[in-house]
Specification:
With 297 residues, the protein is an all-alpha fold. The chain is built from 14 helices and no strands. The chain is 72% helix and 0% strand. The chain is globular.
Length: 297
């Protein structure tokens, strides 16, 4: 029994279940449209998150199978179940098949056609990223940001909510900043280990300063896009006190600055989204933003 339990835990680790938090982005369009009370739309988003999580896990596993040598040379990734040999490659492929089959059933039985198209696009794009795009400097960052923004668009399709171009623009700039942040953290780690380049990526240690400047700039551009959105007609319609929404801008500036300062000091060892999910400062900023939005409603 203990051995079975241990294998199950290792399978969950290999599926990177902690990464599923990223798929909460699917609820964003519904929340911003003030339709979270629509049970049918909310359940569609939940099923959509499950489908995205299953597809994402299948791609993570395929990626880890193809990246075994790189992962075994990495100081932390070498402890992943596949890289350490705890899980066999045939078992990993079996999990991939089960995940894809389950996601397909959800799409066919429960989801609108538009959502299924977005999920297929995501599967193709994230596979292309895993095998090709992540090794090309700058292209990898744009691809990562696109995958995050795609989740937002898919959430709108699942709930039947029109996604604002402002939201997509904000998402692209914010997630490009976070993608650069991920690369910067990897570069810092490489520098500390006295390496010359990030294994399996297109970046050298000399790129760290450029990545730092580009990433922080993109984060503040995202805040600028948000302020333009706040001044637009959609916010004026959705909120009784729209001017209060401006208070979210300094919250975003603080949060983006906090993440980059943490990385600059060598404290960012996770994916930025996963780090934020565990970070008390990020939770405080999230609570402040929610309070402002409620006060503006």
């Amino acid at each position: 029994m203990a051995e079975t339990s241990s294998m199950f835990v290792n399978l969950l680790r290999q599926m990177r279940v902690y990464q599923w938090v990223k798929n909460l982005l699917l609820i964003v369009p519904l929340a911003l449209a003030h339709r979270t009370g629509d049970v049918d739309a909310l359940m569609a988003c939940v099923w959509g998150m499950i489908a995205f999580s299953l597809v994402a896990s299948s791609v993570y596993i395929v990626n880890d199978i193809s990246d075994l040598e790189h992962d075994r040379a990495h100081p932390r990734k070498r402890f992943r179940p596949l890289a350490s040999g705890v899980i066999s490659i045939p078992l990993a492929w079996s999990v991939v098949v089960i995940c894809v089959a389950a996601a397909s059933v959800i799409c066919v039985a429960l989801m609108p056609h538009a959502f299924t198209l977005w999920l297929i696009t995501y599967a193709i794009a994230t596979t292309a990223y895993s095998f090709v795009l992540k090794r090309v400097a700058l292209v990898d960052v744009i691809a990562l940001a696109g995958l995050y923004a795609l989740r937002v668009a898919a959430g709108g399709a699942a709930a039947g909510v029109e996604v604002s171009p402002w939201l997509l623009g904000f998402s692209l700039f914010l997630f490009m900043s976070l993608a650069f942040l991920k690369r910067y953290a990897e570069l810092r780690d490489t520098i500390e280990r006295e390496g010359t380049h990030v294994s399996g990526r297109g970046y050298h240690v000399g790129d760290a300063e450029f990545v730092l400047m580009a990433g922080t700039a993109l984060g503040f551009v995202a805040v600028l896009v948000f302020t333009l959105y706040v001044n637009g007609p959609q916010v004026q319609t959705l909120y009784r006190h729209p001017t209060r929404m401006w208070l979210i801008a300094p919250c975003l500036v603080y949060w983006i600055s906090h993440l980059w300062l943490t990385a600059h000091r060598g404290g960012m060892h996770d994916d930025p989204i996963v780090f934020a999910a565990r970070d008390k400062h990020s939770w405080a900023v999230g609570a402040a933003i929610a309070a402002v939005a409620i006060a503006a409603t």
